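re: that chain from earlier
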Amino acid sequence: MARGTFANIRLVNKFIGKAMPKTAYIPTGEVMDVFDAAELYKKAQKQVIVLAGKDYGSGSSRDWAAKGPWMLGIKAVIAESYERIHRSNLVGMGIVPLQYQAGETADSLGLTGKETYTIALSEKPKMGELVTVKVNSGREFKAILRFDTEVELNYFQHGGILNYMIRKMV
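^ sequence. v structure.
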C-alpha cells in the first residue's frame, strides 16, 4: 500500500517537472520512488508535508489515499481544496488538512516545497481556525485548518480514529 501511494503515472510532481510516479529526495536531488524518499526522511527523522493543488484526493481509492500518506510519514497536507471524504479520511489517520486562503496557492506564495515549514497548531485547535505556517525562508502565511466537525477534532486530538477507538474501548 505505501509503495503504491502517489504512484499514479499522471500525477505531476513539481520537484521533477513532469508526470511520473517519482519524486526528488531534497537533500541530494536524486530522483527516486516516493516510498524510497519517504523512508530516507523517516531514517533522518524529518517530518514531511504535502503541498497540493485543487481537489486533493479526488479519483483515488479513499482508504488507500488516506492510509498511504500516513504510512509514508506525512503529517500535514496544505491544498487549494479537498475532495470532501478524503479530507475527512486524512483527519481519521491523524494527518492535518490545511487549505490555502482564497486566491492563494503554493505558486502565488512562492513555495517550492523544498523549504522547511513550521505549522503553529494550538493545543486545542478549532474548526476553521486560521493557522500560521512559517517557512524557513522568513515567509509566513495563514492557512485554514480544515477540521470541519467536532468529531474530526476529537479524532485528531487522539492521533486518529484508530487511537480514538482503542482509547474508548480501554
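Residues 47-104+113-169 form a domain with the Aconitase; domain 4 fold (CATH 3.20.19.10).
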